[in-house]
Amino acid sequence: MQKKNMEPKAKLLEELVIDVKSVVKVNKGGRQRRFSATVVVGDRNGKVGLGTGKAAEVPDAIKKAIQDANKNLIQIPLIDGRTVAHETIGTSGAARVILKPAKAGTGIIAGGSVRAVLELAGVRDIVSKALGARTKLNMAQAAINGLKSIKTPEEVAKLRGKTVEEILG
Question: What does DSSP assign to residue 87?
Fold first, then answer.
């Protein structure tokens, strides 16, 4: 009975495969070829996760990546259900991603794996800029790290011991 309740919850998350690549490990007996997959999952309403998986076959690698992404879900605060609260910079390795809030109707101005992460997170208006390395996995992780660091005005006010009006001016 408990499992049936868990099943519909998993179906609410959308999956998007960012990258599938072949990786090789050289052994004494020759080359061992496997596949590595990077997947983003999200509910387009503030929940997003990133995962990687590796297996001998592509479908198995994607399945493992989806499981990993579901384990690494984060909740992000959306202002008016469409944008982020403030400008932030996320980093992963040499990749840096700048995320800036935008006016209603702007859309998602981002490329590659950053766009995938933002779309599945439910952000509708944002401007981003990718700096440094353009590795698909690192760019996605940098976007996730940037989204993790976002704080709402309420959280900032609580941390500083002030009211929201004092924070916003």
Answer: -
Domain that holds residue 53: 2-74
Reference 16, options 45, 49, 46, 47; nearest CA is 49
Asked if the structure places residue 161 within a domain, the reply is no
Last residue in a domain, options 51, 74, 97: 74
pLDDT tens-place string over residues 24-36: 999 999 999 999 9
Which residues are CB-neighbours of 88 under 8 A, at least 6 positions away?
98, 99, 146, 147, 149, 150
Q: 82-107 burial, b for 16+ CB within 10 Å, e for fewer?
A: bbbbeebebbbeebbbebbbbeeeee
What CA–CA distances, in Å, run from 58 to 21, 24, 80, 85, 137? Answer: 9, 14, 39, 38, 17
* 83-127 pLDDT per residue, tens: 999 999 999 999 999 999 999 999 999 998 999 999 999 999 999
Of 78, 71, 26, residue with least CA distance to 51: 71
- Judgement on whether residues 87 and 70 belong to the same structural domain of the protein: no
d(CA 16, CA 5): 24
**Greatest alpha-carbon span in the chain:** 68
